[in-house]
Amino acid sequence: MIQDYLPILIHMVIVVVLALALMGLSSWVGVRRPTREKNAPYECGIPPVGNAREKFSISFYLVGMLFILFDVEVAFLFPWAVVYKSLKWFGFIEMFIFVGVLFAGYIYIWKKGALDWSR
Amino acid sequence: MGTSSEPLILTAIILAKVAVVLLVFLTSVAYAVWLERKVVAHIQSRWGPYLVGPHGLLQPVADGLKFLFKEDIEPREVDRLIYYLAPFVAFTMAFASIAVIPFGESITILGHKINFEITSLNVGLLFILAVTSLGVYGIALAGWSSNSKFPLFGGLRSSAQMISYELSLGLALVGVVLISGSLNLREIVDQQQGLWNIVRQPLGFLLYISAAIAETNRTPFDLPEAESELVGGFHTEYSSYKFAMFFIAEYANIFTVSCLATLMFFGGWHGPVFGPHLLRAFLPVLWFGLKVFCFVFAYIWIRGTLPRFRYDQLMSFGWKFLLPLALANVLITSFVVAWRAS
Amino acid sequence: MLPLFYIFGAVAILAALSVVLQQTPVYSALSLIVVLCSLAVVYLLLGAEFLAVIQVIVYAGAIMVLFVLVIMLLNARRETPADRSRMARWLGFPLLIAFFGQILFATWRHFSGLHATPQMAAGPKSIGELLFRNYALPFELTSVLILVAILGAVILAKKQV
C-alpha cells in the first residue's frame, strides 16, 4: 500500500521544482522598474484610501463554521458508502437517523436565517 | 507494483510517467486557454487570436514567453512571504490531483506491465477531494497578503464560495461510491463496463457538475473575479508569472473536475476497442481524452452563454438548493441499492 | 520508510514550534497547516491511509480554513508581547524542562519495547466495517454532537450581529 504513494512523492517533488523554476525564472528575466505609483495598492486609479485591513461581515465566519460541521458529515458518508453493500438495510437505517438528526440542525439554521446572505 | 528486485527500472518508469503526464497536461492547459478564447470569440461573432501562427495556434507559446518577460511588480503593502506562497500553493495543489487519475487500461513493454496512470490509490477519490480542499488556501492567502481592498474582498468571497460548494461536490459523489463500493478510481471505472454511471446517477451528475463549476470559480459562478465589481478579484495585485500560475491553476482545475466527471459518470476510458495490440492499448486513452475534451468544451460554452449570479443568489443556491438535493440523492440511492441487494 | 518518518516527524515538530513562536497570527495558522499535513504523512507511513486523507480533508482543509477566514475577518495584526510576570520569566523554563523530562521518561518507560508496525491496513473498508457495525451507537451519538455544534455556532454568531 505504502509503495503506491511513492509516485506521488516523486510527482510532487517535480511539480514543486517546476513551480519554483517558473517563478524564479520570471523574476530573473523580467524587467524591474518600480515607481511609487506603480507599487501602490490598486484602487481603480485613485490614490489608495485608508487600509485594506477592515472588519467584515460575521456571515463569513458562520459559513466557515457550518462548512466544518457538514464536512465532518461528508467524511462519515464515504466509508459508509464503501461498506454499504454488506450493511444493507442496517446501514440504511443507521445513516437515515444520522442524516435525520443533522437535517433537523439544517432546518434550524435555515429558519434562523443563517443561510440568508443579504442581511 | 512489480517485483522489488528491480527498483531502478521501476523508478525510471515512474519518472517517465510523471514527465509524460505533466507534459501532456501542461500542453492541454495551454491550449484550453487558446480554445476558450477562440470559442468565446466565435460565440460573440469575433475571430479571437489569429495573428500568431495559423489560426493563432502559437498564441499559447507567445503568451507563455510574454509572461516570462513581463515586469514582476511587487506592491509595497504586501506581506512578501505569503504573497509569493499563494500562487505556489494554487499551482502545486492544482497539479497534485492528476497523479491519481487513470486515463487508460495498461500496456506491456519489454515484459513490464505499465498502467496508464501515475499511481492507483485505494482512497484515490478522497485524495482528489483532499487536494481540492487545500486549493482554497492559494486564493484566501492571495487575497489576504495583497493588502489591497479588491483582492481581499475577492479572496474572502471566493473562499466562502469554494467551501460552500465543496460540500455538495463531495455529497454528489457519494452516490457513485454507494454503487461501486470503492474509492479506487480504477475500480470505479471497471465497474462501468456495461453501463455508465450517468444512467444510474443522473441527478448526482447534475449536482456534481454544478458544484464543480462553482468550485473552479467559472461562469456563471465566477464571482471571485467579477470584473465589473471586483476588478480582478484575488489576483488583482499579481503580475508576470505569479499571475500566470493562478491562471494555469484555474485551467488545470477545470481539467481535473472534467477528468473526475468522466471517471465517475461517463465510464472513464471505456469505448469501442478494436485492431492490433498497440491500437487496443491506445484507443481507450483516446476515448478518455475525447470525453474530457467534451467537458472542457461545455465549460467554455457555458462561459460564453450564461450571465453571472449575484453573490447572495450564489450562496443560497449552494446552501439551500444543492446541499439538500445532494443529501436526498444519497438517501434515495442508498434506498435503491439496499432494495436491490435484498 | 524510516527516513521518511524521521523527515516528516521533524517537519511536524519544527512547524509546531513555529506555531507557538510566530508573532503574526496568519503565520501561526499556516504553520499549523504544515503540522497537520505532516502528521497525515506519518499516519500514511503507519498504514492508515484513510485516516491520512480524512486528516487533510477535515483538519487542514476545513478547520484551518475557518481559522484563516477568522484571522482575515478580525484583521489580526502582529501580536504585541504582554508584560510577562517576573515569576513566569524565572520559573517558566525550568518547569518546561521538567515537564518534557517527565513525558520523555514516561514514554521511554512504557513504550520503549513497542514498534509502530501496522497490524492491518486501515483502508476505508476496514474502518467502515468497524465504525458502522461494532461502533454504530457512538457513530449515531456523533450526530447529536454535530447538531449541538451547529446550534452553538448559530447562537454565537447571532449574538454578535
Topology:
The complex is a heterotrimer of chains A (119), B (342) and C (161).
Chain A: H1 6-29, H2 59-87, H3 89-111
Helix pairs in contact in A: 2-3
Chain B: H1 7-43, H2 59-69, H3 80-96, E1 106-109, E2 112-115, H4 124-145, H5 149-180, H6 185-190, H7 197-200, H8 202-215, H9 227-230, H10 240-265, H11 277-305, H12 311-341
Antiparallel strand pairs in B: 1-2
Helix pairs in contact in B: 1-10, 1-11, 3-4, 3-10, 4-5, 5-8, 5-12, 8-10, 8-12, 10-11
Chain C: H1 2-21, H2 25-45, H3 49-74, H4 86-111, H5 124-134, H6 136-160
Helix pairs in contact in C: 1-2, 2-3
Structure in words:
The complex is a heterotrimer of chains A (119), B (342) and C (161). Chain A is mostly helical and 119 residues long. Chain A is 64% helix and 0% strand. Chain A contains three helices and no strands. In chain A, helix 2 (59-87) packs antiparallel against helix 3. The longest helix of chain A is centred in the middle third of the chain and has 29 residues, at 59-87. Chain B contains twelve helices and two strands. In chain B, helix 1 crosses helix 10. Chain B starts with 6 loop residues before the first helix and ends with a helix. Chain C is mainly alpha-helical and 161 residues long. Chain C has two domains: 1-79, Four Helix Bundle (Hemerythrin (Met), subunit A), CATH 1.20.120; 123-161. Chain C contains six helices and no strands. Chain C is globular. The model of chain C has no long low-confidence stretch (mean pLDDT 85). In chain C, helix 1 (2-21) runs antiparallel to helix 2 and helix 2 runs antiparallel to helix 3 (49-74). Chain C has helices at residues 2-21, 25-45, 49-74, 86-111, 124-134, 136-160. Chains in contact: A-B, A-C, B-C. At the A-B interface, helix 1, helix 2 and helix 3 of A face helix 1, helix 2, helix 3, helix 5 and helix 10 of B.
